[in-house]
C-alpha cells in the first residue's frame, strides 16, 4: 500500500516538475521573442550569432549530408531489382534527405556544436557577473544576449539545410553513378520528378523550429547556470541533451502536422 | 555632462537626507537567511566601507540596492525615495545613476577594452561609436592606462589592469553613486594601494557617494570616511573608518586584527 502511494507520489512530483520546467522555458522563450519587436535590436549581436551558427557549422553539416546521401544510395540499392532500383534509389535519397535527414541531422550536429557553445558562453557570463554588469550598464540581457541568438537560430538552420539538401542529393548521385553504374541523366530526372515543393518546404520549416529550439536551450541553460565552472559544464550538457531530444520529438510532431492525412 | 541627474548634491535644504538609507533589509536564499534586517545610512559625498567575513552577504547587499536581487523585506531609499516602490522605468533611471565595480571585474571578454569602458555610453545612445571611443580613451587615462590598452582584450590584461579597466567602466558615465565590491582582493599590496588611490581620486573628482566592500583593513582606512561591519546578516557596528582598529566592539576587533580566538567562531570541519 505504502509502496504504491510512494510510486504515485513520485510520478506526481515528476509531472509537476516537468510542468514547472516547461512553464519556465515557455516564459523565457516568450520573453526573448518579445524583444524582437521592442527596440533597440542589437544587429551586431545578431550577425555575430548568425555567423557562429550558420557559417561555422557549414563544414560539419556538409560532411554529414554528403555521407548520409552516399549511405542512403548504397543501402537502398541492395535487394532491389535493377529495374526498380533505377527510380527507387533516386526518389528514396531525395525524399529522405529533404523531408527528414537533412533537417534532423543538421539539427543534431548544430545542437552539439552551437548549443554547447552558447550555453558555455552565456553560463560563463552568468557566473562571472557579466550578465549583472550588463544590467547595471543600462542593457537588458534578454534583449542583448538572448533575442538575437533566438532569431539567428531560426534563420541560420534553414539556410544550412538548403545546403545539406543539395549536398545529400549530390552524395547519393555520386554513389549511384560511380559505384552503382546508373545513368546520370535518368537519375537526375527521377530525382526531380519525385520531388515536390512540400518536401523541401516542410524540411525547411522543421529546420527553423529546430534552430529556434537549439538557441532556446543554449540560452536558457546558460542563463540559469549557477555555481562556477561546474555549473557551466552542467548547463552545457543539459543544453545539448535537451535540444537533441526536443529536435527528435518535434520532428515527429511536425511530420504528423505536415504529412498525416 | 550629467549634472541634471544629480540635483540633490550640495543642496543645503535636504543635506540631512541620507543619499542611501536602508531599513530592515532582509533576504533569504532557500532556508538560508543572508540579510537579516540591515539598517544603514550613507550620507551624500561620503564613502562608506563595509567589512565582514566571506559569505556574510556583502555582495548580496550591493546587488539588492542595484535591483539585481529582489529583497524579501525592508526598504531602500535613495535621495529619500523608496526605490522598491518605483515602477520598472523609474528604477532603471535610479540604476543608471549608480556605477558598479564587480568583485572579479566582470569585464565583457567578447569585447575589446575600449568597448567595455564605453559600453554604458553606447547603450544609452549618449555618443556615437567614435565619440564613445574617444571618451573611453580619456577615462582609461584617468585610471593610468595608455590609449593602446583600449584595443587589447580583457583576457590579455593582468589582474591589476583588469581592475583599472573595470574601474574605468564604472566611472565612465560619471555616476552619482559608486559601488566597489572588493576592489583590491587578489592584488599585490602595492597595486592594491594604487587602486585605492584611483578610487579615492575618482570619487573626489566626481563628487560621488561611494560604498566599498573590503576585507583589507589598510584599504578600508584609505577609502572610507565611515565604516560598518556586517555579521550574521546585520550591521553590528558603524563608526568612523579611523576607529576600525580600536572600535571597542569585540567582534569587530577580532575581525580587524585577524585573531583566531574571539566571539566569531569559524565553522571548521574537524
Ligand atoms: N543568487 C544566489 N542564490 C543562492 N544563494 C546565493 C546567491 N547569491 C548569494 N548567495 C549566498 O548568499 C551568501 C552571501 O553571499 P555574498 O553576498 O556573495 O557573500 P560575500 O559577503 O562574500 O560577498 C552566500 O552564502 C551565497 O552562497
Ligand atoms: Mg562578495
UniProtKB/TrEMBL annotation, chain A:
Q: What is its main location?
A: membrane
Instruction: List keywords of the entry alphabetically.
Output: Cell inner membrane, Cell membrane, Membrane, Transmembrane, Transmembrane helix, Transport
Location in or out of the cell: Cell inner membrane; Membrane
Report a single Gene Ontology molecular function: phospholipid transporter activity
- A cellular component annotation (GO) from this entry: ATP-binding cassette (ABC) transporter complex
Q: Topology in the membrane?
A: Multi-pass membrane protein
Positions of transmembrane segments: 7-33, 53-74, 150-180, 200-220, 232-254
Q: Does the keyword Transmembrane apply?
A: yes
Q: Does the keyword Lyase apply?
A: no
Say which family it is in: Belongs to the MlaE permease family.
Q: What does this protein do?
A: Could be part of an ABC transporter complex.
UniProt xrefs under PANTHER family: ABC TRANSPORTER PERMEASE PROTEIN-RELATED (PTHR30188), PROTEIN TRIGALACTOSYLDIACYLGLYCEROL 1, CHLOROPLASTIC (PTHR30188:SF4)
Descriptive protein name: ABC transporter permease
UniProtKB/TrEMBL annotation, chain B:
Does the keyword Cell cycle feature in the UniProt annotation? no
The residues covered by the ABC transporter domain are: 20-257
The answer to keyword Transferase applying to this record is no
Q: Which GO terms describe its molecular function?
A: ATP binding; ATP hydrolysis activity
What SMART domains does the record point to? AAA
Q: Which UniProt keywords apply?
A: ATP-binding, Nucleotide-binding, Transport
Query: Out of the domains of life, which is the source?
Result: Bacteria
Q: Tell me which stretches of the chain form a coiled coil.
A: none
Matches recorded under PROSITE patterns: ABC_TRANSPORTER_1, ABC_TRANSPORTER_2
Q: What InterPro entries does UniProt report for this protein, alphabetically?
A: AAA+_ATPase, ABC_transporter-like_ATP-bd, ABC_transporter-like_CS, P-loop_NTPase
Q: What is this protein called?
A: ATP-binding cassette domain-containing protein
Amino acid at each position: 500500500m505504502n509502496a504504491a502511494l510512494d510510486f504515485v507520489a513520485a510520478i506526481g512530483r515528476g509531472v509537476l516538475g516537468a510542468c514547472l520546467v516547461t512553464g519556465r522555458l515557455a516564459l523565457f522563450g516568450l520573453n526573448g521573442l518579445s524583444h524582437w519587436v521592442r527596440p533597440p535590436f542589437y544587429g551586431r549581436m545578431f550577425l555575430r550569432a548568425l555567423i557562429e551558427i550558420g557559417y561555422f557549422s557549414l563544414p560539419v553539416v556538409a560532411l554529414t549530408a554528403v555521407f548520409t546521401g552516399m549511405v542512403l544510395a548504397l543501402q537502398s540499392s541492395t535487394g532491389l531489382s535493377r529495374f526498380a532500383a533505377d527510380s527507387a534509389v533516386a526518389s528514396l535519397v531525395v525524399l529522405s534527405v529533404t523531408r527528414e535527414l537533412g533537417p534532423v541531422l543538421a539539427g543534431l550536429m548544430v545542437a552539439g556544436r552551437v548549443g554547447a557553445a552558447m550555453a558555455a558562453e552565456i553560463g560563463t557570463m552568468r557566473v562571472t557577473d557579466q550578465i549583472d554588469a550588463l544590467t547595471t550598464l543600462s542593457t537588458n540581457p534578454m534583449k542583448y544576449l538572448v533575442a538575437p541568438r533566438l532569431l539567428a537560430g531560426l534563420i541560420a538552420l534553414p539556410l544550412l539545410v538548403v545546403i545539406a539538401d543539395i549536398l545529400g542529393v549530390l552524395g547519393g548521385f555520386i554513389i549511384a553513378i560511380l559505384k552503382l553504374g546508373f545513368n546520370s541523366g535518368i537519375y537526375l530526372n527521377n530525382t526531380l520528378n519525385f520531388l515536390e515543393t512540400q518536401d523541401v518546404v516542410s524540411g525547411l520549416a522543421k529546420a527553423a523550429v529546430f534552430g529556434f529550439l537549439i538557441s532556446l536551450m543554449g540560452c536558457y541553460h546558460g542563463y540559469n547556470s549557477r555555481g562556477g565552472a561546474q555549473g557551466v559544464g552542467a548547463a552545457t550538457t543539459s543544453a545539448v541533451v535537451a535540444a537533441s531530444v526536443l529536435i527528435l520529438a518535434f520532428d515527429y510532431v511536425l511530420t504528423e502536422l505536415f504529412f498525416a492525412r | 555632462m550629467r549634472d541634471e541627474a544629480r540635483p540633490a548634491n550640495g543642496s543645503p535644504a535636504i543635506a540631512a537626507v541620507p543619499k542611501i538609507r536602508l531599513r530592515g533589509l532582509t533576504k533569504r536564499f532557500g532556508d538560508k537567511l543572508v540579510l537579516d534586517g540591515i539598517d544603514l545610512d550613507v550620507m551624500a559625498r561620503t564613502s562608506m566601507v563595509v567589512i565582514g567575513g566571506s559569505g556574510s552577504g556583502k555582495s548580496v547587499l550591493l546587488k539588492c540596492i542595484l535591483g539585481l536581487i529582489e529583497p524579501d523585506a525592508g526598504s531602500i531609499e535613495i535621495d529619500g525615495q523608496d526605490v522598491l516602490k518605483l515602477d520598472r522605468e523609474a528604477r532603471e533611471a535610479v540604476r543608471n545613476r549608480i556605477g558598479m565595480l564587480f568583485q572579479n571585474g566582470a569585464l565583457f571578454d567578447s569585447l575589446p577594452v575600449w568597448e567595455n569602458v564605453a559600453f554604458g555610453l553606447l547603450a544609452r545612445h549618449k555618443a556615437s561609436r567614435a565619440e564613445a571611443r574617444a571618451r573611453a580613451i580619456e577615462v582609461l587615462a584617468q585610471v593610468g592606462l595608455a590609449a593602446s590598452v583600449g584595443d587589447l582584450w580583457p583576457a590579455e590584461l593582468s589582474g591589476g589592469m583588469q581592475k583599472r579597466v573595470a574601474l574605468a567602466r564604472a566611472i565612465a558615465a560619471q555616476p552619482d553613486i559608486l559601488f566597489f565590491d572588493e576592489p583590491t582582493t587578489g592584488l599585490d599590496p602595492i597595486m592594491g594601494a594604487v587602486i585605492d588611490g584611483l578610487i579615492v581620486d575618482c570619487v573626489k573628482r566626481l563628487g560621488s557617494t561611494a560604498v566599498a566592500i573590503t576585507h583589507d583593513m589598510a584599504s578600508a582606512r584609505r577609502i572610507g570616511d565611515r565604516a560598518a561591519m556586517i555579521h550574521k546578516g546585520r550591521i553590528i557596528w558603524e563608526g568612523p573608518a579611523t576607529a576600525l582598529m580600536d572600535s571597542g566592539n569585540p567582534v569587530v576587533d577580532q575581525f580587524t586584527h585577524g585573531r583566531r580566538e574571539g566571539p566569531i567562531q569559524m565553522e571548521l570541519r574537524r
